[in-house]
Amino acid sequence: MADNYDDYSREELLRELRLRDRRPRFGLVWERKEIEHEQAVNNDFVALELDPALSCGAAPYRNLIIEGDNFDALRYLRMTHTGKIQCIYIDPPYNTGNRDFIYNDRFVDKEDAYRHSKWLEFMYRRLLLARELLAEDGVIFVSIDDNEVFNLGLLMNSIFGESNHIATCIWQKRYSRENRGSIGDAHEYLLIYALNPEIFKYRRNKVALTEKQTAVYKNDHPIHGKWRDIPMTAQGFRPNQMYEIVSPTGKKHRPPEGRCWSMIESQYQKKLDEGRIFFGKDGNGTPRVIRYLSEVEGVVPWTWWPHEEVGHTDEARKEIQSIFGTQTVFDTPKPVRLIERILRIATKPDDLVLDFFAGSGTTAHAVMKLNAEDGGNRRYILVSSTEATTAEPTKNLCRDVCAERVRRIAQGYTNKKGENIAGLSGDFAYLRTQRLPADTLFYSIQHEHIWLALQLIHGSDLSLYVTDALMQRSEQGDTILLYVPRINEAILQALSDLFAANAKLLVYAWQPGLLQHHFGNQRDSFLPIPQVLIDRFGTGSKP
């Protein structure tokens, strides 16, 4: 079990005790021992099974939709994608008490004495794993509302580090008044954490100017186009920025009290020579800097995200209605524009995006839309459960809503008005998690499971297992990745031919010792299966 200290070595226990002694006593505490153990937390190995019938497009697949408990999926991704995800966005259950949060196959209601503790335990396990998946320049965005925002902030501070908190953004989810409460509820939050804030600050993108922001560029220049004037002062006192400036009319200017000029004198003189200093229409005013609209690449994102810029809940509902012709079970879906804003800030054209509370598939929709706009090759991994319960055992939101929406956006669909909407193109492999008992793994794991995992570990697009092939093959740059399910004369000859051609091979096999003995000078090319997968999978995250 993930919290079983019997599994720790002496060195691990000592390290844990020393860390605990150094930890401050202030922080978030919840009743972990009192609540029912989460059934998803176990020692089972997790494999993935690919369903070609529910996949979109033809193999090899670049994108993944995983059906199953997201704790299982995250444990699997830790084996295959540790340190590979640039951007994570999640929209977890808000724990409103109104049948939005399922713990051990049962809804948690408002009267549950351990409602908040169950939610925190649920989120803690998943966020610990999510942190391991982030690349060094990675960032995570989490949507939340007032029900758990304060608990979530403390939880994320403990997992990602308080110093790694980038911002808490406010999303205006409503455009019309809400009068049911004492004070109308009009917003939600986005908590943003990065593994390395300095790298994120350097890497993050600016956002495009809005129409309102571009409208202030009212002046026209015959060559450079629209421009505006901005102040040439800065707060503070710097001796080399306190010089005197003489306007074209001869009026002398010095910085106002408590401020200095925003540049040293030589920089000012250069701007003046370039015609970039504005003294007002009469040439007598305080100097200001001319900024051309054509030079503005964007603006630094800020924490207020109004509905005019990123959409609102009603817009999101209409998007889903347009695709399906009716509303789905999701009461508060996110608009595509909101997720687009996140991706515009946090991703580059070749990045990998993960959403392990995928809901209606909005994240994949936004990825495809942004790729179509800027020619990018962003990829996505979505994880969604079926959300089946004992009362609704056949319910499958991953298959019927999430994957179906993404398929329609990729391939095209007819909207509610009867209009044909062109597809944005793209593919995905539809996968299901499968738990395999650790003590029978050597007998229960299938060749298809192994080949799928090896491809993902090595960053391959996902190809199907070819049953009648001698061995499974994928080329990774100058390296050929091979899985050898059995050893016979034909396999030995095929490997011998590849080595003779000076091919660089990475061979996974059940009996690597036999291959090492046969190809003595290529010993480092052979790795043991399933031991490599077991070692990478581990036993779950430790508390």
From TrEMBL:
The catalysed reaction is: a 2'-deoxyadenosine in DNA + S-adenosyl-L-methionine = an N(6)-methyl-2'-deoxyadenosine in DNA + S-adenosyl-L-homocysteine + H(+)
The cross-references to Gene3D superfamilies, in alphabetical order and at most eight, read: Vaccinia Virus protein VP39
The keyword Methyltransferase appears for this protein:
yes
Q: What class of enzyme is it?
A: transferase
Q: Does Methyltransferase appear among the keywords?
A: yes
- Which SUPFAM superfamilies does the record associate with it? S-adenosyl-L-methionine-dependent methyltransferases
Highest taxon, organism lineage: Bacteria
Any GO MF annotation of the entry: DNA binding
Going by the UniProt record, its keywords in alphabetical order are: Methyltransferase, S-adenosyl-L-methionine, Transferase
> In its UniProt record, which GO terms are filed under biological process?
methylation
Annotated DNA methylase N-4/N-6 domain ranges read 85-373
Q: What is its EC number?
A: 2.1.1.72
What family does the Swiss-Prot or TrEMBL record give for this protein?
A: Belongs to the N(4)/N(6)-methyltransferase family.
Q: List the protein's name.
A: site-specific DNA-methyltransferase (adenine-specific)
